[in-house]
């Protein structure tokens, strides 16, 4: 039974890889609704890391006070993952989201066209089938 549940969990997981192309250290912080923010990774310039996630909505940013957000909802609706960049609360770190199955979005400034600029800017959300790999690049 444990093996079967483990296999089922893997089928519905999505991987997120983090790449630091900045000339400085990046503290990847994960935030989720109703949970305390946690450090996902500490990446020196040129380093990368990754993790698998199940059915959750979460954001990633640079530092606990970070403003630019890479936002995700995994296995959220009809077997889809949703992703976007957001600068609604402000901009502080250049960021991009790419995947092995969809659109690449990039934000290199406060008014970037690929990111949410206001709460109902819903044309900035992208979707793909659950179970792929996303790459969050800091300083693309």
TrEMBL record:
<protein>
    <recommendedName>
        <fullName>Thaumatin-like protein</fullName>
    </recommendedName>
</protein>
<dbReference type="InterPro" id="IPR037176">
    <property type="entry name" value="Osmotin/thaumatin-like_sf"/>
</dbReference>
<dbReference type="InterPro" id="IPR001938">
    <property type="entry name" value="Thaumatin"/>
</dbReference>
